[in-house]
Amino acid sequence: MTENPCASQINGCGPCVFAGVQAARKLAETDERLHDERLHSVAAWRETPFFTEEERAALALTEAATRIQDGAPGVTDDIWDAAATFFDEKQLSAIILNIALTGFFNRINHTIREQAGKAWS
């Protein structure tokens, strides 16, 4: 995954949500899964049956690491332990870097008022 749609939805970054969908298509994700299940459900991932336990652990980690401004508790031991069940140290490092880079690009797009739907190369 190149863009993190969960973090981008939390941060309200349309360009990054759009880019995440485009990247998923390039990685051979089907339009049906993008449209019917994942894309429309990532904001409510806890209440849907469309994500594996591994994906749920990554989504929980993403949400906890992203929601720092609204007083959320951050990454708790339970969230970290759940993620560590599915991902090794290298994978966890990659996920954390992805979350951080997504937040970085969310903030750049917010600052320059980038519009969703433009093609990025």
Number of strands: 0
Q: Which percent range describes the beta-strand content?
A: under 5%
Gap between N and C termini: 16 Å
How much helicity do the residues have? 55-70%
Flag low-confidence runs. Answer: none
How many helices in DSSP terms?
6
Q: Indicate the structural class.
A: mainly alpha
Q: Mind summarizing the main beta sheet?
A: none
Radius of gyration: 14 Å
In short:
This protein has 121 residues and is mainly α.
What can you see in these coordinates?
The relative contact order is 0.18. The mean pLDDT is 81. This protein has helices at residues 5-10, 14-26, 31-41, 53-66, 77-86, 89-112. The protein is built from six helices and no strands. Helix content is 64%, strand content 0%. Helix 4 packs antiparallel against helix 5 (77-86) and helix 4 packs across helix 6 (89-112). By secondary structure, the protein is mainly alpha-helical.
Q: What is the fold's blueprint, element by element?
A:
Elements: H1 5-10, H2 14-26, H3 31-41, H4 53-66, H5 77-86, H6 89-112
Helix pairs in contact: 4-5, 4-6
